C-alpha cells in the first residue's frame, strides 16, 4: 500500500509541475510539444529550406517560418487533405507543365490558391483550383455560364492558368514577380515598378498589398509541405475519394447525367465530386468539347455507356478503341501502357486526337484495336466482365498460369476493367 501511495503522489506532483509550466511558460511548452509531436526543430527545418529546390529565393525569415509552421503544425488536417488531392491532381498538373516547358514547382501555386480543391470559391468570386476570376477566365478562353464553369474543370483550368503564367513570365522574367502578379494583377506590379524604378520582388514588397506580401512566403511554405511532409509525420487523408489514378476524356456529344447514372456503372456521387464544372444534369458541349474526369476503372464504364448512347461503334468498349474511332477527342491517362510511335507511317485519320501515355512522348495517334502490339509482346486491355480465362481463350497456346506469371498476378488478385495485361509471343 505504501508503494502504491508513493507512486500516486509522485504522479500528482509531476502533473502539477507540467500544469505550472504550461501556465507560466505557455510558449515554451507549446514549442516543446511541436518538437516532440510534429518533429518541428528549427535547425532541421532551416537545413531543408536551404536544400529545397525552389523557383523563388528562399529567405529564412519569420514570414517563411510562420507559413511552414502553419502547414506542418497548426493546420495539419487541411494539409492531409491537400496531400490526398495532390495524389489525384498532381500527375495531371505536372504533365501539362511539362508539355509547356514550365517548372514543376508551379504546381504548388494551386496548393496555396485552393488547397487543390476544384470546387473552391473565394469571397471575391474567384473559383477552381487556380482561383480565376470570371473575366480573367473568359479572357483565357474558359466558359463561365449557366451550364458550365470551366474554372472548376481540372484540365481546362490548368491549361488556362499555364497560359496566364507564361504570359506573366514573358513580362517579368522572374518567378517571384510572376507569382505576385498572379495574386494582385500584372498592372499593379508594373505600376509600382514604374513609379519606384525598382525591379525585384524584395525591393517592391513593401509597396504591395498585404496579402501579396505574404504570397511568396506562403508559396514557400506550401512547397516545403509537398517536399517534406513525411518528415513531420504527415500523410494523405485517404478517406475522401477512391485512391486510383484519374483519367480524363474529352467529348463533344450530349449526355444526360441522370439517365447515365441509371443505365451505367458510373457512381453518381463520385462523378459529381470529380466534375463540379457542370452546373446542370445535361452535359451539352455545344461547339467546344468538354472534359470528363473519373477514376480509371469507372472511366471504362462511362466510355461503355457513351459509345452505346451514340450507337456508332456499339461493340467498342475500351478507352483506347474509343479514341481510335474519334468518339473521344482527347485522352489523358496515367495507367495506360506505353505505345511506341510507328515509324514512317502516314496518319490514317485526323490528328486532333491527342493520346497521352504514362511516359511523356510524341505519340500522335493511337493504334486502333483493343489489343495493342509491341515488338515482342501484346498488350490486352481488360474489358468489363472479362476474366483471365476469357483472355486466355482468345490467344492460342496461352494459359491462365502464363498470364499470371507475365503480369505478376496472384491467385486472389482483383482485376479492374481497363487493366493492361502483357501477353508474350
Q: Which key phrases capture this entry?
A:
425 residues, alpha+beta, Lysozyme, 4 domains, four-stranded mixed beta sheet, 9 strands, globular
CATH third-tier fold name of the largest domain: Lysozyme
- Secondary-structure-based class equals alpha+beta
Strand content range = 5-15%
Largest sheet: 4 strands, mixed
Q: State the order of secondary-structure elements, H for helix, E for strand.
A: HHHHHHHHHHHHHEEHHEEHHEEEEHHE
Highest-level CATH class of the largest domain: Mainly Alpha
Distance from first to last alpha carbon: 80 Å
Q: What is the approximate shape?
A: globular
Spatial strand sequence of the major β-sheet: 4-1-5-6
Global mean pLDDT = 80
Q: Give the uncertain stretches in residue-range form.
A: 12-30, 337-342, 347-374
CATH architecture of the largest domain: Orthogonal Bundle
Amino acid at each position: 500500500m505504501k508503494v502504491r501511495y508513493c507512486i500516486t503522489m509522485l504522479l500528482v506532483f509531476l502533473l502539477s509541475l507540467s500544469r505550472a509550466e504550461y501556465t507560466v511558460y505557455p510558449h515554451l511548452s507549446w514549442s516543446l510539444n511541436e518538437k516532440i509531436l510534429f518533429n518541428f526543430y528549427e535547425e532541421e527545418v532551416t537545413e531543408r529550406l536551404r536544400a529545397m529546390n525552389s523557383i523563388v529565393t528562399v529567405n529564412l525569415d519569420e514570414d517563411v517560418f510562420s507559413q511552414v509552421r502553419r502547414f506542418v503544425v497548426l493546420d495539419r488536417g487541411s494539409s492531409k487533405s491537400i496531400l490526398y488531392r495532390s495524389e489525384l491532381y498532381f500527375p495531371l498538373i505536372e504533365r501539362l507543365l511539362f508539355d509547356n516547358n514550365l517548372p514543376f514547382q508551379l504546381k504548388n501555386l494551386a496548393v496555396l490558391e485552393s488547397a487543390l480543391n476544384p470546387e473552391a470559391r473565394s469571397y471575391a468570386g474567384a473559383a477552381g483550383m487556380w482561383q480565376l476570376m470570371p473575366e480573367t477566365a473568359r479572357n483565357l478562353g474558359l466558359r463561365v455560364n449557366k451550364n458550365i464553369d470551366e474554372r472548376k474543370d481540372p484540365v481546362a483550368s490548368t491549361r488556362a492558368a499555364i497560359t496566364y503564367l507564361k504570359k506573366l513570365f514573358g513580362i517579368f522574367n522572374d518567378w517571384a514577380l510572376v507569382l505576385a502578379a498572379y495574386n494582385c494583377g500584372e498592372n499593379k506590379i508594373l505600376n509600382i515598378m514604374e513609379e519606384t524604378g525598382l525591379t525585384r520582388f524584395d525591393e517592391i514588397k513593401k509597396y504591395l498589398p498585404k496579402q501579396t506580401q505574404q504570397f511568396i512566403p506562403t508559396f514557400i511554405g506550401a512547397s516545403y509541405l509537398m517536399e517534406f511532409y513525411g518528415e513531420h509525420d504527415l500523410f494523405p487523408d485517404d478517406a475522401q475519394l477512391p485512391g486510383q489514378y484519374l483519367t480524363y476524356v474529352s467529348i463533344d456529344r450530349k449526355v444526360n447525367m441522370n439517365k447515365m447514372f441509371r443505365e451505367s456503372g458510373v457512381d453518381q456521387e463520385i462523378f459529381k465530386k470529380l466534375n463540379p464544372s457542370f452546373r446542370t444534369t445535361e452535359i451539352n458541349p455545344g461547339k467546344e468539347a468538354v472534359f470528363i474526369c473519373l477514376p480509371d476503372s469507372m472511366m471504362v464504364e462511362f466510355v461503355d455507356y457513351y459509345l452505346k448512347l451514340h450507337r456508332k461503334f456499339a461493340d467498342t468498349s475500351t478507352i483506347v478503341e474509343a479514341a481510335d474511332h474519334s468518339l473521344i477527342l482527347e485522352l489523358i491517362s496515367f495507367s495506360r501502357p506505353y505505345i511506341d510511335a510507328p515509324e514512317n507511317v502516314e496518319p490514317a485519320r485526323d490528328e486532333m486526337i491527342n493520346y497521352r501515355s504514362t511516359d511523356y512522348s510524341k505519340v500522335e495517334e493511337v493504334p486502333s484495336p483493343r489489343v495493342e502490339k509491341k515488338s515482342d509482346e501484346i498488350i490486352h486491355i481488360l474489358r468489363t466482365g472479362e476474366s483471365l480465362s476469357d483472355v486466355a481463350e482468345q490467344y492460342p497456346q496461352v494459359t491462365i498460369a502464363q498470364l499470371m506469371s507475365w503480369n505478376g498476378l496472384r491467385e486472389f488478385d482483383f482485376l479492374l476493367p481497363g487493366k493492361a495485361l502483357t501477353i508474350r509471343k
